[in-house]
Amino acid sequence: MRVNVAKAPAKSRKIEPAVTNRERPNEPDRYKASKEELLEFYRQMLLIRRFEEKAGQLYGLGFIGGFCHLYIGQEAVAVGLQSALDGEKDSVITGYRDHGHMLAYGIDPKEIMAELTGRAAGISRGKGGSMHMFSTEKKFYGGHGIVGAQVSLGTGLAFAHKYNEDGGVAMAYFGDGASNQGQVYESFNMAELWKLPIIYVIENNQYAMGTSVNRSSSEDQLYRRGESFRIPGIQVDGMDVLACRGAAEEALAWVRAGKGPIILEMKTYRYRGHSMSDPAKYRSRDEVQSVRDNSDPIEGVKKELEAAGVKEDELKAIEAEIRKAVNESADFAEQTPEPDPAELYTDVLVGTY
Ligand SMILES: Cc1ncc(C[n+]2csc(CCOP(=O)(O)OP(=O)(O)O)c2C)c(N)n1
Ligand SMILES: [Mg+2]
């Protein structure tokens, strides 16, 4: 038997949903953003891009150790979706590719970069690193290294929102690879049964480490993965920030109306390797270049801005402002002290059962 290796990202195939005997969400429209909102999307996506490029450099220079997974290419997903959330009450949880989600939730780049370099001023006091960053204050619950674990934990967050009647919605992100994990389906079952307020976001960036989605998934239309649990799903262009925001609006309307969970499959692409130590031999340079040339989310919003009459100078000024903020975060992360050795014994479970 010959297994086909993907030459290009999986194409969308429109398939009629199997679940027909229940109400379904509306097909989302692209979000109609004001000029100010478009500028804010541009600013946030560029911040993530430049932050990640800098993190890559610091890794190369040895300032960052351990694992480091970059979000370059996927910026529209976190920015578009999280811009629709209510930071006062909604919670977010994701996997190890988490810097962009933190930045999109308004967390200070200095605290994130200092976490990457393992410094005491980092958001998790330098003890979490790239994969394990938290800010419960901002309702950001990590940063998880175990593939798929955040789906069950996110379902728990949704349970807490419902139990406490706080009106919040949980957004749990996971990858195409994670979508084949068993605990995801146990979580789906419970979430629908109890009508929990959760948006499951599958960031389908086409690869799980070196394995393409077509090579690993018998049902590669991942938005359909909830159907045997009666959870509806929507497939979204994850390279278009306005499509992402539009989908978030529909998903939130569904969940906030008490109709239970929903799945958003975001079709996206990561430009860099799986982590900093990935030589990316499983795909061609041409494949990556063609996505960069044809679907880059930042270039896309730049075109929208130009059409809205924003001048090149204004965009250049934003670029300069972001470079400055990112450079400052890197300087801070290099210079601020490491945690005191006594910190080895704080915030860890020490005890007997
Ligand atoms: C339970 C578990 N199995 C395997 C791994 C090793 N691993 C880390 S990332 C990864 C691929 C996950 O890919 P995907 O869910 O598509 O997310 P992406 O990296 O593309 O964001 C694997 C297999 C792990 N960390 N945890
Ligand atoms: Mg993936």
Automatic annotation (TrEMBL):
Its cofactor is thiamine diphosphate. The keyword 4Fe-4S does not apply. This is Pyruvate dehydrogenase E1 component subunit alpha. Residues 1-30 are annotated as: Disordered. It comes from Sphingomonas koreensis. Keywords: Coiled coil, Oxidoreductase, Pyruvate, Thiamine pyrophosphate. InterPro entries: DH_E1 (IPR001017), PDH_E1_Alpha_Subunit (IPR050642), Pyrv_DH_E1_asu_subgrp-y (IPR017597), THDP-binding (IPR029061). It comes from the Bacteria. Signal peptide: none annotated. Its EC number is 1.2.4.1. Residues 13-30 have a biased composition (Basic and acidic residues). Heterodimer of an alpha and a beta chain. GO terms for molecular function: pyruvate dehydrogenase (acetyl-transferring) activity. Residues 308-335 form a coiled coil. GO terms for biological process: pyruvate decarboxylation to acetyl-CoA. It catalyses: N(6)-[(R)-lipoyl]-L-lysyl-[protein] + pyruvate + H(+) = N(6)-[(R)-S(8)-acetyldihydrolipoyl]-L-lysyl-[protein] + CO2. The pyruvate dehydrogenase complex catalyzes the overall conversion of pyruvate to acetyl-CoA and CO(2). It contains multiple copies of three enzymatic components: pyruvate dehydrogenase (E1), dihydrolipoamide acetyltransferase (E2) and lipoamide dehydrogenase (E3).
